[in-house]
Structures are given as C-alpha cells and as structure tokens.
Q: What sequence folds into this?
C-alpha cells in the first residue's frame, strides 16, 4: 500500500502467469464529473506511455483499465524487497 493506491499479486488466467495489479485510490471530489474525466484521461495517457517503454530498469505494463470506478494497471510481477525493507536491512 502506498499513497497512490495498492498493489496486488494476481494470476492472469488467460496466459497463466503471475502479475502485479496496481489499483489507484480515487482522488479529488468524486461528484465532480469534469475532474474525474480529466483524471481518467491523464491516467490512460500515462499508462500508454508506460506501456511503450522498453528498458531493463522499467517494469513492463501489460494492460490498464477501469473496473467499478477504480483505475488499474496490470504489470510485470517483480519478486523482491520493497524500499522500506531494503532501507531497514542497510541501516
């Protein structure tokens, strides 16, 4: 969990692989349709840019979308430590 949302381990059943699904927290006034529309479009644009990047230091984005008002990214699953664990280990 983080300031922007939560990341879950999931199974892509169609391809039989483990993935990470990042669900973004709703931001701003939910009743403001213009704000919500701008947020969705910005998310889609940034997801497309992220999916186009190809570099060994960048997590692969497989898919993105919206389900019941929650924006999400489906990404390559990277096993390992999170930043907090790494910092604690190196104190």
A:
């Amino acid at each position: 969990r983080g300031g922007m949302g939560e990341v879950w381990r999931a199974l892509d059943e169609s391809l039989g692989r483990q993935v990470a699904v990042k669900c973004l927290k709703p931001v701003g006034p939910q009743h403001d349709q213009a704000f919500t529309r701008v947020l969705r479009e910005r998310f889609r644009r940034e997801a497309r840019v992220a999916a186009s990047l190809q570099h060994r230091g960048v997590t692969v984005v497989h898919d993105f979308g919206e389900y019941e008002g929650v924006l999400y990214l489906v990404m390559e699953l990277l096993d390992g430590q999170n930043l907090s664990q790494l910092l604690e280990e190196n104190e």
Remarks:
- Residues 5-89 form a domain with the Phosphorylase Kinase; domain 1 fold (CATH 3.30.200.20).
